[in-house]
Amino acid sequence: MIVFAERCHGTVTAPPSKSALHRRLILNRIAGRIDHPVDACSDVRTTADCLSRLGTDQVLDCGDCGASLRFLLSVSLLFGGADFTGTDALKARPILPLLKELNAHGAHIDGESLPISARGTLRSGAYALSGDVSSQFFSGLCMTLPFLSGDSTLCRTSPLQSAGYVALTERMLREHGVFLQHIENGFRIIGGQTAKVCDRPVEGDWSCAAAMLIFGAMCGSVTVTGLDLQSDQPDRRILDVLEQCGAHVQTDGSSVTASRGTLRGFKCSGSEAPDLVPVLAALACASQGDSVLYRLDRLRYKESDRFAALTMLLGNLGADFETERSDTIVIHGSGSVRGGTTNVPPDHRMVMAAALMSGCSAAPVKLSHAECVQKSYPAFFKDFQSLGGIIDAI
């Protein structure tokens, strides 16, 4: 696919939050209902398929969806356990700390990486995990421990990264009639609770919205509707970054408009919102001056090694950049890049970043793996084109 963009203008609706949909489907399944979402992204469909197989002898194929695996390893034990499989990319993502904690509380885990068999009767008790590996470990346990017979505590032994996703889990638990109590470094969780089915629509996806708002800041003006401005989703911080870099940002109810201003370099940590980093690199290239993306170590354990993939993308398209240590990329923005052919891996976030970089490229951008956007934002290229992006299939 060849993409190019000189200007953009218009309005798009954010798709439903992938993070919220995972949690809604799981909590409704615990409440006794199996949902079959229509037109959802492939990650959500993976979770829905796995949930429909809980309590059977069928293997749960998590594909390359880390949320499906990390949430359902815990939750499956409420249904007698399950066998899990997935792609090689998912196999490489960290999971061992969660397996050890489940084993310590009555589960019988066979395997330290995929394929994994989870059986046994999970016991309530004192759970503790490092906070710097994955917030999904905590969210999975938050959606499991309230339904055990006894009370539990769930504590972090180091600062929790992407804490907003755990806050999102707690809020959605409340929507299903389940409550957590805050204690120092974690939660006290009363056992024996019962989840109720909830049909409340989930909020819009800030990760997807961020891509389109950056497109507006780079090339014209874009409005994204369907957003919760008080959301716990960590990627809501895109609003702060856009204002820091000089874009014009307006909010109105559930809508956000980002328009081009005099874009300048910015600084952003990837520790709380790592999914933002690839598209922020595109914004940095369209800005004047140095942008510093730091604390990027968690990018190495996503659907690809995104730190390596991002440096490859920047190099492919002629950006001026350098890496510092093993967790920082400094982009010396000049407002444009050369363009050309990208060689990024089949990773949805990287494909979207490559497309956005066409908005500041002197030549069109040729990219592969366009189908990867199905994982999180199936309408990405449709929305990109409707706003003024040019797409030629090859």
List the helices and strands and how they pair.
Layout: E1 2-4, E2 8-13, H1 18-30, H2 42-53, E3 60-61, H3 66-75, E4 82-85, H4 88-91, H5 96-103, E5 107-110, E6 116-120, E7 126-129, H6 135-142, E8 152-156, H7 163-175, E9 181-183, E10 186-189, H8 206-219, E11 220-225, H9 238-244, E12 248-252, E13 255-259, E14 267-269, H10 277-285, E15 288-294, H11 306-316, E16 321-324, E17 328-334, E18 340-341, H12 348-357, E19 365-366, H13 380-386, E20 390-392
Parallel strand pairs: 2-11, 3-4, 7-8, 14-15, 18-19
Antiparallel strand pairs: 1-19, 1-20, 4-6, 5-6, 8-10, 9-10, 11-13, 12-13, 15-17, 16-17
Could you explain how this protein is built, in words?
By secondary structure, the chain is α/β, with parallel strands linked by helices. It has 2 domains: 2-16 and 203-392, UDP-n-acetylglucosamine1-carboxyvinyl-transferase, Chain (Alpha-beta prism), CATH 3.65.10.10; 18-189, UDP-n-acetylglucosamine1-carboxyvinyl-transferase, Chain, CATH 3.65.10. 32% of the residues lie in helices and 21% in strands. It contains 13 helices and 20 strands. It has helices at 18-30, 42-53, 66-75, 88-91, 96-103, 135-142, 163-175, 206-219, 238-244, 277-285, 306-316, 348-357, 380-386, and strands spanning 2-4, 8-13, 60-61, 82-85, 107-110, 116-120, 126-129, 152-156, 181-183, 186-189, 220-225, 248-252, 255-259, 267-269, 288-294, 321-324, 328-334, 340-341, 365-366, 390-392. The strands form 5 sheets. The protein has a 4-stranded mixed β-sheet, covered by helices on one side. The protein has a 4-stranded mixed β-sheet with strand order 2-11-13-12, with helices on one face. Strands 3-4-6-5 form a 4-stranded mixed β-sheet. Strand 7 (126-129), helix 6 and strand 8 (152-156) form a beta-alpha-beta unit. The chain is globular, with a radius of gyration of 21 Å. The mean pLDDT is 95.
